[in-house]
Automatic annotation (TrEMBL):
This is trypsin. Its EC number is 3.4.21.4. The gene is 6038907. It is found in: Secreted. Residues 1-18 form the signal peptide. Residues 29-262 form the Peptidase S1 domain. Its main location: secreted. The lineage of its organism: Eukaryota, Metazoa, Ecdysozoa, Arthropoda, Hexapoda. It catalyses: Preferential cleavage: Arg-|-Xaa, Lys-|-Xaa.
Amino acid sequence: MNLPILLAILCLGTIASCNDRFSVRKRLIVGGDKIDIGQVPYQVIIQLGDMVVCGGSMIAPSWILLASHCLWDIRGYEHLLEVRAGSKNRLHGGEVRTVKWSTLHPKYDRVHLHHDIALLFLNHPMVFGDNIKCIRIPPQDYMPRAMDDGFVAGWGLTNADHDRTKASNYPKELLGVKLPVLGFKTCNRWYNNYTLYQDTQFCAGYPEGKRDACVGDSGGPYVVGRQQVGIVSWGLSCAKPRQPGVFTDVGMYRNWIETTMFKIQGSSRGLKCKAYF
């Protein structure tokens, strides 16, 4: 399959996802600010040609953490993806790698977006520097607390009404926004017609909306302090009142992450970074 056809499939898949009952959060940073990559040196952009697929984070020299729904529509063609690190511009600068291997969580549920977590293994390790560093992940079973202040960045659309199938509508420069963790009972009440999983998901945002992650930011890291506690997963809209973002709780998957990485690399070598955020 050639790249133009695959891009068309990706665009159609994105539209379908955004029109289903979950309006999958392949979306944007709303109400944020332009930031330098040095503020989030773990952040990567995953693209197919010049089309934004998702965000992600570097957790080891050759490993990227992201969301399963980012890869669902392009399974079998992940080798065509490009991963860029170390640049606030999604089209230029930094280090670029292709994908050697990928996996979705074996229990991923694409209907409810449960276990929405995945891994990419790069063809070559990233080269560390001031703008390229790993992010630490929390210990197994760690859960963020309500009112923890987290940070999300990405290259998603800056207006939810823009045509998401046009690469030119996605910003070239990186944006970021602070979002507090919300109490699960509150979020579950606001999303009473949808399924949330308290053991593996959490919500972050503001009751009044206005600031949010949205189309294109999926898979990106939600960072509290110096560790990544969440992955941008889904939401009903962008920055609307009482419709916060839903995040995969990374701490519930540390064992799976480490076991998967060890299985592919065959040893602990290469699983730790020389430089962390």
